[in-house]
Amino acid sequence: MIGRLLPRDTLRRRIALTIVAAMVASLTLNALFVQVAGIWAQPPIERTGLLEQIASTTRVIEAAPASLRAQLASAASNPMLDVAWHAQRDQFNLPAGGAQLTADSAPVLRRLLGADREIDVFNPSDWPDNSTEARYVALVRMDDGSWLSFTPPERSWGLNLPARLAVVITLGLIATLLVAWIATRQLANPIQRFAGAARRFGGDLNAPPIHLEGPHEIRQAIIAFNTMQAQIQHFIGERTHMLASISHDLRAPLTRMRLRSEFMEDLDHQRKLIRDIEEMQSMINAALAFFREDTHLEQSTAFDLSELLQTIIDDFRDQDIAIDFSGPAHLVYIGRPLGIKRVIVNLLENAVKYGQHPRTALSVDQESVYIEVSDEGPGIPDAALQRVFDPFFRLETSRNRDTGGVGLGLSAARAIVREQGGELTLSNRKGLVARVELPRSA
């Protein structure tokens, strides 16, 4: 019941919440800044630190004879505080308004000058709007009825209006960008993981289903993708099982044909028939091995790819087959070592059979790992570079039926590489070059 009342987590809802959150964050920061900076830029005079200077200066000038007070006031002036003395209050040309400081608002000044001292203050807000003379002014009445004025000629604290506006705009942008960055990350991360899982399924048909996460629309897309993935896996599994069963069932009639051929009187026809039967038997055995290939069940693990290649080369050298190797001494890679080993062994066997001076090279960049197996043989015609990956395809001019395979080696090799998210390509360069490209993390 509660779940029905709550709104669904949709893209529209997330976008709306992001906009609202950005506005709230921006307004909150600006309100805090205006509250703090308003007092900081134009604080009441009792918060400027001027009252202590006023008290000490007033006591010194008041103790002097009246004839010297104007001179002493001028001498007491400094770049931070302008002091002036006049016999009458209206000689200062101040606006109407101002306020008297009470004992509560200026306890320091009242304590130093006496509780009954008349003190008037003017803040910049007391001047007319846009007045160029707006400033702080403090008036202190002396014992003989004359007045001292204290005015800071230039403000030495806070920010002026353009600077405050720049800060307000900057804080608004920062708040908006921060909220947008957090919101887009929460929205983009499920999409990125969805895209990564889709790419992984393109290279690994046995990849696990995608975890449900994100807003409603993305979750619906993930559900649809997982359903499609399960259907494809089921279809391929059924087809593979059917083909494996057919290949297995063909072995029985081939065996009977082989037995019957032994009773043929025409030896020439008998020899040809037996050769065809053996070839068909080899093709069936290769097909069964291909369908029962267990590399797709292998789990990815971290291993030393360079050491694996050198171990394969050492196995060939034990058979008196020299193979050159170039590449780093060590390279940690996350993938399926059994599948990679079968691919490289197949490519090296082809290089040994159909070429000379086989070589293996290992290289790496930021995105991929590259393994090249090359030879100095006749290579493959350009028109057949892609066809050799077709199951049971053989180059009759360069492959002998007695020494060559049945045409499944390269097909199986490319299937294994693609299951790990990589690609196997062939090219001619002083012979054949087989290039295996694997992602840094298979």
Overview of this protein structure:
This protein is of the alpha+beta class. It starts with a helix and ends with a strand. The chain is rod-shaped, with a radius of gyration of 45 Å. The relative contact order is 0.07. Residues 397-401 have low confidence and may be disordered. Helix 2 packs antiparallel against helix 6 (161-203), helix 7 runs antiparallel to helix 9 (267-291) and helix 11 (337-354) runs antiparallel to helix 12 (409-419). It has twelve helices and twelve strands. A hairpin with a 3-residue loop joins strand 9 (359-364) and strand 10 (368-374). The protein has helices at residues 2-5, 11-41, 50-62, 66-76, 107-113, 161-203, 216-249, 251-261, 267-291, 305-317, 337-354, 409-419, and strands at 82-86, 99-100, 119-122, 137-141, 147-151, 301-304, 324-326, 332-335, 359-364, 368-374, 423-428, 432-439. Among the domains are: 45-151, Beta-Lactamase; 297-439, Heat Shock Protein 90 (2-Layer Sandwich), CATH 3.30.565. Residues 245-442 form the Histidine kinase domain. The chain crosses the membrane at residues 15-41, 161-183. It comes from Pseudomonas vancouverensis. Keywords: ATP-binding, Cell inner membrane, Cell membrane, Kinase, Membrane, Nucleotide-binding, Phosphoprotein, Transferase, Transmembrane, Transmembrane helix, Two-component regulatory system. GO terms for molecular function: ATP binding; phosphorelay sensor kinase activity.
